[in-house]
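Appendix B. Chain record.
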Amino acid sequence: MKFEDLVQQMKNDIIQLGAQELRTPADVDAVIPHAKGTMLVVVNSTCGCASGTARPALRESLHHPNKPDKLVTVFATTDREATARVRQYFPGQPPSSPSFALMKDGKLVTMIHRSQIKDHSVEQVARELTDAYDRHCTGN
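Structure tokens predicted for this chain:
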């Protein structure tokens, strides 16, 4: 399998969950600052913790009764400019991939970093996500 095909498969894991893919800085700027309600930004990557933990935890978390109004994703490995731009909307947060950023009305409210994903179980990360949903996405 070619690298491009593998990357597309990793992107599709999240797109198939209903995520909008943001591939350019213009895509990011068209969505993030104008978003109303809650939005989960997934910074996806090719690392093992993205494949083994982050994406499965995301999938599991979306079965929760409370969840974000919108789901978007950037791919850190290949869409570097879009990833750099989306990170500008996470003030005070270090770059991290994979990671999850929960936004409300275009503002960061919670960040789950790679350090909270790597070496944790799918269930633990899904619980981090659903706890964040319960705090910020109630009434959806």
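Further analysis of this model is presented in Appendix C.
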